[in-house]
Amino acid sequence: MNSPKQNRIRSLIEIFLVSTRLGLTSFGGPTAHLGYFHEEYVRRRKWMDEKSYADLVALCQFLPGPSSSQVGIGIGIMRAGIVGGITSFIGFTFPSVVALIAFALLMTGFDVGNAGWIHGLKIVAVAIVAHAIIGMAKSLTPDLKRKAIAIFALLVTLLWQTDFSQVVVILMAAFIGFLLLEQENEGGVVQTRFPVSKQVGAICLLVFVGLLVVLPLLKEMTGSYWVAMFDSFYRSGSFVFGGGHVVLPLLENEFVPTGWMSEEAFLAGYGVTQAVPGPLFTFAAYLGTVMNGWEGGIIATVAIFLPAFLLVIGALPFWDQLRNQPKITGAIMGMNAAVIGILIAALYSPIWTSSILDAKDFALAVILFSMLSYWKLPPWIVVVTGAVTGLVLL
Protein backbone atom coordinates (compact mmCIF):
# COMPACT_ATOMS: atom_id res chain seq x y z
CA MET A 1 0.00 0.00 0.00
CA ASN A 2 1.31 3.43 -0.93
CA SER A 3 1.80 6.11 1.71
CA PRO A 4 -0.17 9.40 1.53
CA LYS A 5 3.04 11.13 0.41
CA GLN A 6 3.54 8.65 -2.43
CA ASN A 7 -0.10 9.03 -3.48
CA ARG A 8 0.28 12.81 -3.50
CA ILE A 9 3.44 12.64 -5.64
CA ARG A 10 1.70 10.23 -8.02
CA SER A 11 -1.27 12.60 -8.30
CA LEU A 12 1.01 15.55 -9.05
CA ILE A 13 2.87 13.60 -11.73
CA GLU A 14 -0.43 12.55 -13.29
CA ILE A 15 -1.72 16.15 -13.25
CA PHE A 16 1.48 17.36 -14.90
CA LEU A 17 1.45 14.74 -17.65
CA VAL A 18 -2.23 15.21 -18.48
CA SER A 19 -2.09 19.01 -18.42
CA THR A 20 1.09 19.04 -20.54
CA ARG A 21 -0.59 16.88 -23.17
CA LEU A 22 -3.49 19.31 -23.20
CA GLY A 23 -1.03 22.21 -23.46
CA LEU A 24 0.48 20.60 -26.55
CA THR A 25 -2.83 19.90 -28.29
CA SER A 26 -5.38 22.50 -27.14
CA PHE A 27 -5.84 24.82 -30.11
CA GLY A 28 -8.76 27.16 -30.67
CA GLY A 29 -8.92 29.61 -27.78
CA PRO A 30 -10.58 29.62 -24.33
CA THR A 31 -13.94 28.14 -25.35
CA ALA A 32 -12.25 25.22 -27.11
CA HIS A 33 -9.98 24.72 -24.09
CA LEU A 34 -12.99 24.30 -21.82
CA GLY A 35 -14.26 21.61 -24.18
CA TYR A 36 -10.93 19.79 -24.05
CA PHE A 37 -10.91 20.01 -20.25
CA HIS A 38 -14.44 18.64 -20.00
CA GLU A 39 -13.62 15.70 -22.23
CA GLU A 40 -10.39 14.86 -20.39
CA TYR A 41 -11.12 15.65 -16.75
CA VAL A 42 -14.87 15.01 -16.48
CA ARG A 43 -15.75 12.37 -19.07
CA ARG A 44 -12.54 10.33 -19.37
CA ARG A 45 -10.83 10.58 -15.99
CA LYS A 46 -13.86 11.50 -13.87
CA TRP A 47 -11.77 13.73 -11.60
CA MET A 48 -14.88 15.80 -10.99
CA ASP A 49 -18.58 15.56 -11.79
CA GLU A 50 -20.57 17.69 -14.25
CA LYS A 51 -21.99 19.94 -11.53
CA SER A 52 -18.60 20.69 -9.96
CA TYR A 53 -17.09 21.43 -13.36
CA ALA A 54 -19.95 23.76 -14.27
CA ASP A 55 -19.54 25.58 -10.94
CA LEU A 56 -15.81 26.00 -11.51
CA VAL A 57 -16.32 27.31 -15.06
CA ALA A 58 -18.93 29.77 -13.77
CA LEU A 59 -16.50 31.06 -11.14
CA CYS A 60 -13.70 31.56 -13.68
CA GLN A 61 -16.03 33.35 -16.09
CA PHE A 62 -16.95 35.63 -13.19
CA LEU A 63 -13.32 36.55 -12.41
CA PRO A 64 -10.97 38.73 -14.46
CA GLY A 65 -8.13 36.84 -16.10
CA PRO A 66 -7.64 33.93 -18.53
CA SER A 67 -10.72 31.81 -17.89
CA SER A 68 -9.45 28.53 -19.37
CA SER A 69 -6.16 28.73 -17.46
CA GLN A 70 -8.08 29.50 -14.26
CA VAL A 71 -10.29 26.45 -14.80
CA GLY A 72 -7.17 24.33 -15.25
CA ILE A 73 -5.69 25.78 -12.07
CA GLY A 74 -8.96 25.12 -10.21
CA ILE A 75 -9.08 21.50 -11.37
CA GLY A 76 -5.51 21.00 -10.14
CA ILE A 77 -6.41 22.55 -6.76
CA MET A 78 -9.46 20.33 -6.35
CA ARG A 79 -7.39 17.28 -7.27
CA ALA A 80 -4.23 17.89 -5.21
CA GLY A 81 -4.44 21.21 -3.38
CA ILE A 82 -2.65 24.44 -4.25
CA VAL A 83 0.49 22.60 -5.40
CA GLY A 84 -1.75 20.65 -7.77
CA GLY A 85 -3.04 23.93 -9.17
CA ILE A 86 0.51 25.17 -9.79
CA THR A 87 1.41 21.84 -11.43
CA SER A 88 -1.63 21.96 -13.69
CA PHE A 89 -0.81 25.53 -14.71
CA ILE A 90 2.81 24.73 -15.54
CA GLY A 91 1.86 21.74 -17.68
CA PHE A 92 -0.83 23.58 -19.66
CA THR A 93 1.22 26.77 -20.16
CA PHE A 94 4.79 25.52 -20.59
CA PRO A 95 4.58 24.36 -24.26
CA SER A 96 3.29 27.64 -25.66
CA VAL A 97 5.62 29.72 -23.44
CA VAL A 98 8.64 27.83 -24.81
CA ALA A 99 7.42 28.18 -28.41
CA LEU A 100 6.81 31.93 -28.11
CA ILE A 101 10.09 32.64 -26.32
CA ALA A 102 11.89 30.72 -29.10
CA PHE A 103 10.06 32.70 -31.78
CA ALA A 104 10.91 36.01 -30.10
CA LEU A 105 14.59 35.04 -29.88
CA LEU A 106 14.63 34.04 -33.55
CA MET A 107 13.15 37.41 -34.48
CA THR A 108 16.09 39.25 -32.94
CA GLY A 109 17.95 41.00 -35.74
CA PHE A 110 15.07 40.83 -38.23
CA ASP A 111 13.82 44.01 -39.85
CA VAL A 112 10.26 43.34 -38.75
CA GLY A 113 9.00 46.60 -40.19
CA ASN A 114 9.71 45.61 -43.80
CA ALA A 115 9.27 41.82 -43.78
CA GLY A 116 6.32 40.69 -45.93
CA TRP A 117 5.52 37.72 -43.69
CA ILE A 118 5.35 40.04 -40.68
CA HIS A 119 2.85 42.23 -42.51
CA GLY A 120 0.86 39.07 -43.30
CA LEU A 121 0.76 38.23 -39.58
CA LYS A 122 -0.52 41.72 -38.81
CA ILE A 123 -3.41 41.13 -41.23
CA VAL A 124 -4.03 37.78 -39.48
CA ALA A 125 -4.53 39.80 -36.27
CA VAL A 126 -7.24 41.85 -38.03
CA ALA A 127 -9.16 38.72 -39.03
CA ILE A 128 -8.79 36.95 -35.68
CA VAL A 129 -9.81 39.92 -33.51
CA ALA A 130 -12.79 40.71 -35.78
CA HIS A 131 -13.90 37.07 -35.56
CA ALA A 132 -13.52 37.08 -31.77
CA ILE A 133 -15.52 40.29 -31.41
CA ILE A 134 -18.45 38.99 -33.44
CA GLY A 135 -18.58 35.74 -31.47
CA MET A 136 -18.29 37.44 -28.09
CA ALA A 137 -20.79 40.20 -28.90
CA LYS A 138 -23.59 37.67 -29.49
CA SER A 139 -23.43 36.47 -25.90
CA LEU A 140 -22.10 39.56 -24.08
CA THR A 141 -24.28 42.28 -25.67
CA PRO A 142 -27.63 40.59 -26.44
CA ASP A 143 -29.87 43.51 -25.40
CA LEU A 144 -30.04 47.29 -25.89
CA LYS A 145 -28.67 48.18 -22.44
CA ARG A 146 -25.52 46.17 -22.93
CA LYS A 147 -25.14 47.37 -26.53
CA ALA A 148 -25.29 50.94 -25.18
CA ILE A 149 -22.58 50.14 -22.61
CA ALA A 150 -20.40 48.67 -25.38
CA ILE A 151 -20.84 51.80 -27.54
CA PHE A 152 -20.02 54.01 -24.55
CA ALA A 153 -16.86 51.99 -23.91
CA LEU A 154 -15.89 52.19 -27.59
CA LEU A 155 -16.27 55.97 -27.77
CA VAL A 156 -14.44 56.69 -24.52
CA THR A 157 -11.58 54.32 -25.35
CA LEU A 158 -11.13 55.82 -28.82
CA LEU A 159 -11.41 59.48 -27.85
CA TRP A 160 -9.74 59.42 -24.42
CA GLN A 161 -6.50 57.49 -24.87
CA THR A 162 -4.64 57.53 -21.57
CA ASP A 163 -2.91 54.97 -19.40
CA PHE A 164 -6.04 54.61 -17.25
CA SER A 165 -8.88 54.98 -19.75
CA GLN A 166 -9.59 51.27 -20.20
CA VAL A 167 -9.57 50.56 -16.46
CA VAL A 168 -11.86 53.54 -15.81
CA VAL A 169 -14.25 52.38 -18.53
CA ILE A 170 -14.44 48.87 -17.05
CA LEU A 171 -15.11 50.23 -13.54
CA MET A 172 -17.79 52.61 -14.83
CA ALA A 173 -19.43 49.76 -16.77
CA ALA A 174 -19.44 47.66 -13.60
CA PHE A 175 -21.21 50.45 -11.72
CA ILE A 176 -23.79 50.89 -14.52
CA GLY A 177 -24.35 47.14 -14.61
CA PHE A 178 -24.73 47.05 -10.83
CA LEU A 179 -27.49 49.67 -11.07
CA LEU A 180 -29.29 48.60 -14.25
CA LEU A 181 -28.57 44.92 -14.87
CA GLU A 182 -29.13 41.87 -12.77
CA GLN A 183 -29.59 38.19 -13.39
CA GLU A 184 -31.53 36.00 -11.03
CA ASN A 185 -30.10 32.57 -10.18
CA GLU A 186 -32.76 30.31 -11.69
CA GLY A 187 -31.31 27.22 -10.07
CA GLY A 188 -31.82 28.56 -6.57
CA VAL A 189 -29.17 28.92 -3.88
CA VAL A 190 -26.35 26.42 -4.36
CA GLN A 191 -23.53 25.28 -2.11
CA THR A 192 -20.25 23.79 -3.35
CA ARG A 193 -17.26 22.44 -1.45
CA PHE A 194 -13.81 23.70 -2.43
CA PRO A 195 -10.58 22.52 -0.73
CA VAL A 196 -9.45 26.04 0.27
CA SER A 197 -10.16 27.71 3.60
CA LYS A 198 -11.65 31.18 3.84
CA GLN A 199 -8.53 32.36 5.68
CA VAL A 200 -6.28 31.32 2.79
CA GLY A 201 -8.73 32.83 0.32
CA ALA A 202 -8.80 36.15 2.16
CA ILE A 203 -4.99 36.30 2.26
CA CYS A 204 -4.79 35.73 -1.50
CA LEU A 205 -7.34 38.46 -2.19
CA LEU A 206 -5.42 40.87 0.05
CA VAL A 207 -2.18 40.04 -1.76
CA PHE A 208 -3.92 40.60 -5.11
CA VAL A 209 -5.13 44.07 -4.11
CA GLY A 210 -1.90 44.86 -2.27
CA LEU A 211 0.25 44.22 -5.35
CA LEU A 212 -1.98 46.52 -7.43
CA VAL A 213 -1.22 49.30 -4.94
CA VAL A 214 2.38 48.52 -4.03
CA LEU A 215 3.90 47.75 -7.44
CA PRO A 216 3.27 51.24 -8.97
CA LEU A 217 4.66 52.86 -5.80
CA LEU A 218 7.69 50.58 -5.86
CA LYS A 219 8.23 51.41 -9.54
CA GLU A 220 8.28 55.13 -8.77
CA MET A 221 10.53 54.72 -5.73
CA THR A 222 13.13 52.45 -7.33
CA GLY A 223 12.99 53.41 -11.02
CA SER A 224 13.71 49.73 -11.72
CA TYR A 225 13.04 48.53 -15.27
CA TRP A 226 12.16 45.05 -14.00
CA VAL A 227 9.68 46.35 -11.42
CA ALA A 228 8.06 48.55 -14.08
CA MET A 229 7.80 45.59 -16.43
CA PHE A 230 6.35 43.31 -13.75
CA ASP A 231 3.85 46.02 -12.76
CA SER A 232 2.65 46.47 -16.37
CA PHE A 233 2.06 42.77 -16.94
CA TYR A 234 0.49 42.28 -13.50
CA ARG A 235 -2.01 45.11 -14.06
CA SER A 236 -2.85 43.81 -17.53
CA GLY A 237 -3.58 40.38 -16.09
CA SER A 238 -5.70 41.90 -13.33
CA PHE A 239 -8.20 43.82 -15.48
CA VAL A 240 -8.99 41.43 -18.32
CA PHE A 241 -12.66 40.43 -18.52
CA GLY A 242 -13.98 38.40 -21.43
CA GLY A 243 -11.11 36.11 -22.45
CA GLY A 244 -7.61 36.17 -23.80
CA HIS A 245 -8.26 38.46 -26.77
CA VAL A 246 -9.10 41.30 -24.39
CA VAL A 247 -5.52 41.42 -23.13
CA LEU A 248 -4.43 42.77 -26.53
CA PRO A 249 -5.50 46.43 -26.05
CA LEU A 250 -4.27 46.48 -22.46
CA LEU A 251 -0.81 45.21 -23.39
CA GLU A 252 -0.61 47.37 -26.50
CA ASN A 253 -1.40 50.43 -24.39
CA GLU A 254 1.32 49.47 -21.90
CA PHE A 255 4.22 48.80 -24.24
CA VAL A 256 3.83 50.36 -27.71
CA PRO A 257 3.20 54.06 -26.87
CA THR A 258 5.97 53.93 -24.26
CA GLY A 259 8.47 52.76 -26.87
CA TRP A 260 9.27 49.47 -25.16
CA MET A 261 8.59 47.69 -28.45
CA SER A 262 7.46 48.49 -31.98
CA GLU A 263 3.90 48.12 -33.19
CA GLU A 264 5.09 45.73 -35.94
CA ALA A 265 6.78 43.39 -33.47
CA PHE A 266 3.74 43.54 -31.16
CA LEU A 267 1.21 42.56 -33.83
CA ALA A 268 3.50 39.92 -35.37
CA GLY A 269 3.77 38.20 -32.00
CA TYR A 270 0.02 38.37 -31.50
CA GLY A 271 -0.48 36.66 -34.86
CA VAL A 272 1.97 33.89 -34.02
CA THR A 273 0.32 33.37 -30.62
CA GLN A 274 -2.80 32.23 -32.50
CA ALA A 275 -0.81 29.40 -34.10
CA VAL A 276 0.37 27.76 -30.87
CA PRO A 277 -1.78 25.72 -28.48
CA GLY A 278 -2.48 26.75 -24.93
CA PRO A 279 -3.69 30.03 -23.38
CA LEU A 280 -3.55 33.34 -25.30
CA PHE A 281 -2.03 34.99 -22.22
CA THR A 282 1.29 33.36 -23.11
CA PHE A 283 1.58 36.25 -25.58
CA ALA A 284 3.26 37.88 -22.57
CA ALA A 285 6.16 35.43 -22.90
CA TYR A 286 6.82 36.71 -26.41
CA LEU A 287 6.56 40.37 -25.36
CA GLY A 288 8.86 39.93 -22.38
CA THR A 289 11.45 38.14 -24.51
CA VAL A 290 11.42 40.84 -27.19
CA MET A 291 11.96 43.48 -24.50
CA ASN A 292 14.53 41.70 -22.34
CA GLY A 293 15.52 38.23 -23.49
CA TRP A 294 14.30 34.88 -22.19
CA GLU A 295 14.51 36.13 -18.60
CA GLY A 296 12.05 38.85 -19.50
CA GLY A 297 9.78 36.24 -21.08
CA ILE A 298 9.65 34.20 -17.89
CA ILE A 299 9.08 37.23 -15.66
CA ALA A 300 6.32 38.53 -17.95
CA THR A 301 4.61 35.13 -17.88
CA VAL A 302 4.70 34.94 -14.09
CA ALA A 303 3.47 38.52 -13.74
CA ILE A 304 0.49 38.25 -16.10
CA PHE A 305 -0.71 34.92 -14.68
CA LEU A 306 -0.14 35.74 -10.99
CA PRO A 307 -3.49 37.61 -10.65
CA ALA A 308 -5.28 34.55 -12.07
CA PHE A 309 -3.76 32.37 -9.33
CA LEU A 310 -4.52 34.79 -6.51
CA LEU A 311 -8.10 35.36 -7.67
CA VAL A 312 -8.96 31.69 -8.16
CA ILE A 313 -7.56 30.66 -4.80
CA GLY A 314 -9.04 33.73 -3.14
CA ALA A 315 -12.52 33.42 -4.63
CA LEU A 316 -13.05 29.66 -4.29
CA PRO A 317 -14.18 29.76 -0.62
CA PHE A 318 -16.52 32.74 -1.21
CA TRP A 319 -18.01 31.74 -4.55
CA ASP A 320 -21.34 30.50 -3.20
CA GLN A 321 -22.09 33.87 -1.56
CA LEU A 322 -21.07 35.85 -4.66
CA ARG A 323 -22.92 33.78 -7.24
CA ASN A 324 -26.23 34.17 -5.44
CA GLN A 325 -26.14 37.99 -5.55
CA PRO A 326 -28.03 39.30 -8.64
CA LYS A 327 -26.46 42.76 -8.34
CA ILE A 328 -22.96 41.27 -8.49
CA THR A 329 -23.82 39.35 -11.64
CA GLY A 330 -25.21 42.60 -13.06
CA ALA A 331 -21.87 44.33 -12.48
CA ILE A 332 -20.07 41.52 -14.29
CA MET A 333 -22.54 41.73 -17.19
CA GLY A 334 -21.75 45.45 -17.47
CA MET A 335 -18.00 44.82 -17.52
CA ASN A 336 -18.36 42.12 -20.16
CA ALA A 337 -20.35 44.50 -22.36
CA ALA A 338 -17.64 47.16 -22.00
CA VAL A 339 -15.08 44.59 -23.14
CA ILE A 340 -16.77 44.49 -26.56
CA GLY A 341 -16.39 48.24 -26.98
CA ILE A 342 -12.74 48.15 -25.90
CA LEU A 343 -12.02 45.35 -28.37
CA ILE A 344 -13.68 47.22 -31.25
CA ALA A 345 -11.54 50.26 -30.41
CA ALA A 346 -8.43 48.06 -30.47
CA LEU A 347 -9.53 46.54 -33.79
CA TYR A 348 -9.53 50.03 -35.29
CA SER A 349 -6.35 51.28 -33.60
CA PRO A 350 -3.71 49.93 -33.66
CA ILE A 351 -4.67 46.78 -35.56
CA TRP A 352 -6.60 48.08 -38.58
CA THR A 353 -4.78 51.40 -38.98
CA SER A 354 -1.34 49.75 -39.05
CA SER A 355 -2.25 46.62 -41.04
CA ILE A 356 -4.79 47.49 -43.77
CA LEU A 357 -2.86 49.87 -46.00
CA ASP A 358 -4.32 49.12 -49.44
CA ALA A 359 -6.83 46.98 -51.34
CA LYS A 360 -4.58 43.89 -51.30
CA ASP A 361 -4.37 44.00 -47.53
CA PHE A 362 -8.15 44.29 -47.21
CA ALA A 363 -8.68 41.41 -49.67
CA LEU A 364 -6.34 39.15 -47.66
CA ALA A 365 -8.11 40.12 -44.42
CA VAL A 366 -11.47 39.15 -45.96
CA ILE A 367 -10.09 35.77 -47.06
CA LEU A 368 -8.56 35.05 -43.65
CA PHE A 369 -11.74 36.11 -41.85
CA SER A 370 -13.80 33.83 -44.13
CA MET A 371 -11.46 30.92 -43.38
CA LEU A 372 -12.20 31.38 -39.68
CA SER A 373 -15.89 32.27 -39.77
CA TYR A 374 -17.34 30.35 -42.70
CA TRP A 375 -14.98 27.48 -43.45
CA LYS A 376 -14.24 26.91 -39.72
CA LEU A 377 -10.55 26.21 -40.33
CA PRO A 378 -8.18 25.94 -37.33
CA PRO A 379 -6.44 29.20 -36.36
CA TRP A 380 -2.97 27.82 -37.06
CA ILE A 381 -3.90 27.26 -40.73
CA VAL A 382 -5.10 30.86 -40.94
CA VAL A 383 -1.83 32.09 -39.38
CA VAL A 384 0.34 30.09 -41.79
CA THR A 385 -1.76 31.25 -44.76
CA GLY A 386 -1.39 34.89 -43.74
CA ALA A 387 2.39 34.64 -43.21
CA VAL A 388 3.04 32.80 -46.49
CA THR A 389 0.77 35.12 -48.50
CA GLY A 390 2.51 38.14 -46.98
CA LEU A 391 5.93 36.70 -47.84
CA VAL A 392 4.97 36.03 -51.46
CA LEU A 393 2.67 38.91 -52.36
CA LEU A 394 3.05 41.80 -49.93
UniProtKB/TrEMBL annotation:
Question: Which membrane topology term applies here?
Answer: Multi-pass membrane protein
**Domain of life of the organism in this record?**
Bacteria
Which residue ranges run through the membrane?
Answer: 89-110, 116-137, 149-180, 200-218, 225-251, 297-319, 331-351, 363-393
Which compartment or compartments is the protein found in?
Cell membrane
Q: Name one GO cellular component term.
A: plasma membrane
Is Translocase found in the keyword set?
Answer: no
Q: List the Pfam families.
A: Chromate_transp
Coiled coil (residue ranges)? none
- List UniProt keywords, sorted A-Z: Cell membrane, Membrane, Transmembrane, Transmembrane helix
Q: Which InterPro entries match?
A: Chr_Tranpt_l_chain, Chromate_transpt
Which GO molecular function annotations are given, in alphabetical order?
chromate transmembrane transporter activity
The UniProt entry's sequence similarity note says: Belongs to the chromate ion transporter (CHR) (TC 2.A.51) family.
Q: Which NCBIfam families match?
A: 2A51
Annotated protein name in UniProt: Chromate transporter, chromate ion transporter (CHR) family
Which organism encodes this protein? Solibacillus isronensis B3W22
